[in-house]
Design a protein that fits this description.
Strand content: 25-35%
Shape: elongated
Radius of gyration: 20 Å
Distance between the termini: 46 Å
Largest sheet: 7 strands, mixed
Number of strands: 10
Structural class: alpha+beta
Helix content: 25-40%
């Protein structure tokens, strides 16, 4: 880790941010049938971390989460789900044990976990002064994570799997037009299991969040599957639990 940059940032954090509270975001993307998560690699270190940050004294927690996500990815106005609070003893202090006790980052921090679902094509990963890489990594092949960040990812995935039963998934993960097999593939990848095609179709259509398009997907030797798109208004109502 880079001592001077961290010490400089520490002095600024004491002035501008709320002490002892942080935010860590698990940013999920879906590409080539793989569920991925956005990670940063710490400079001069073999550990990776989640995109996260601190809450300014003049902003709400949700606003801070949106700001941090935008700074890391350029993704704006993305649905964020608060899924947990993490406050184990020494969850962050031990990682900075070789630093002076007054360092901002060495203090005990309780972190608020959010997960976001984004279209990877709309995201431009951004590094900061503490990292030398920001990349999409498969949730099935996570690198060595700092602090409790691997546990946070696993809790976010568990929350996503639970929420998928009563909230729609896919609006920010699939292209604008998609086929039913592509939507089913997304659900199967998140859940880690195969789903019955007929049951999946009936369940999804019952929620009234899809619009069937007139034209089928072009290309391929077999009968082309129909294309769909999300009905944005109904989808947003379903997110709020109004018709789900």
């Amino acid at each position: 880790m880079i001592i001077q940059e961290i010490q400089n940032a520490s002095a600024e954090m004491w002035k501008s941010s709320l002490p002892h509270v942080s935010i860590d975001s698990v940013v999920f993307g879906f590409k080539n049938a793989s569920l991925n998560v956005l990670l940063l690699k710490i400079k001069n270190d073999n550990h990776w971390i989640l995109p996260g940050g601190y809450i300014n004294k003049n902003e709400s927690i949700d606003d801070a989460a949106q700001r941090i996500l935008f700074e890391r990815s350029g993704a704006d106005k993305i649905f964020l789900n608060n899924f947990g609070v993490f406050g184990d003893l020494n969850r962050s202090e031990d990682y900075f044990k070789d630093y002076p006790d007054h360092l901002w980052h060495k203090q005990r921090f309780i972190t608020i976990g959010y997960y976001a679902l984004v279209n990877q094509s709309d995201v431009t990963p951004v590094i900061d002064i503490f990292s030398d890489s920001c990349e999409w990594v498969s949730v099935n092949h996570l690198p060595k994570m700092a602090m409790d960040h691997q546990s946070i990812i696993m809790k976010a995935l568990a929350a996503l799997r639970e929420h998928i039963s009563y909230k729609p998934i896919g609006y920010n993960l699939l292209p604008e037009h998609f086929t039913m097999p592509e939507l089913q593939s997304l659900y199967e990848t998140i859940l880690g299991q195969k789903l019955n095609r007929g049951n999946f179709y009936r369940k999804i259509m019952r929620y009234n969040i899809l619009t069937k398009l007139d034209e089928p997907r072009k290309g391929g030797a077999h009968k082309a599957p129909h294309l769909y798109k999300f009905d944005k208004e109904n989808y947003e109502q379903a997110l709020k639990g109004l018709n789900w």
